[in-house]
Amino acid sequence: MRVIREDTIWQLTFMPRFFPVNVYLVEEDDGLTLIDAGMPFSVKGILKTAERIGKPIARIVLTHAHDDHVGALDALKAALPDVPVCISERDARLLAGDVSLDAGEPQTPIRGGVPKKVRTRPDVLLRDGDRVGSLLAVAAPGHTPGSMAFLDTRNRALVAGDALQTRGGLAVSGQLKAGFPFPAFATWNKETALASARKLTGLRPALLAVGHGRMLKHPQRAMERIVT
Q: What are the phi and psi torsion angles at 132 (to 5°)?
């Protein structure tokens, strides 16, 4: 596991050389917000890093309901039974294994590792514009129908989940990168993902933190290039 800190954001990367999977700990006055739950074996690293920081995990927030982002969720909930779990209202269905689509959504199949055995159910269902501590919840569908990003309103750090990737080169979800093609293979709808990436670019983040790849400082120009 690799740990990198940028201001309020701690990036924990599992399998960094081969298939990097990131989760994030965001420092708040009342503790830590964990964004995503990684792989099943991520639980020990997450808990040990929180102990190292010296603050309790106060809440768990999920960018979307794919296996590599919710893998340790049940183990974390068992270790932290009083910590609320938050996910978008839309992807709460996906977390429960429901791959049905709404009538107004693009009727492309949901792809990627949809959970089949996750027992944990969310305590808080998020909508666009909700606040989670210092984080602004931003609907960013495309990779999944209910994908969300989270903007730290104190410093404009953006945790974007799989709406974007930096591994293999900066790309919008659905844009195939030969060096790391897996997010593209797991993307539900490319057109919706591009619209969401444009929305996130409009937030003018000072730091971009994604599900796969290193954090990117001052990402504005690079983000503008890939969404035009």
A: -130, 95
Q: In which band, very low, low, confident or very high, does the pLDDT at 211 lie, cut at 50, 70 and 90?
A: very high
**Nearest by Cα to 62 from 150, 145, 131, 133:** 150
Helix, strand, coil % (nearest 5) of the chain? 25, 25, 50
C-alpha span between 144 and 11 (Å, rounded)? 22
Euclidean distance between CA atoms 121 and 93, whole angstroms: 10
Q: How confident is the model over 156-166, as pLDDT tens digits?
A: 999 999 999 99
pLDDT one-digit tens code per residue, 16-75:
999 999 999 999 999 999 999 999 999 999 999 999 999 999 999 999 999 999 999 999
Average pLDDT, the chain: 97
190-201 helix and 220-227 helix, angle to the nearest 10 degrees: 150
Note the pTM of the prediction, 2 decimals. Answer: 0.97
Q: Which string of DSSP letters, residue by residue, matches 71-121?
A: TTHHHHHHHSTTS-EEEETTHHHHHTT-----TTS--PPP-S---SS----
Pairing of strands 157-159, 164-165: unpaired
User: Hey, where are the domains in the chain?
Assistant: 2-227
Q: What is the CATH number of domain 2-227?
A: 3.60.15.10
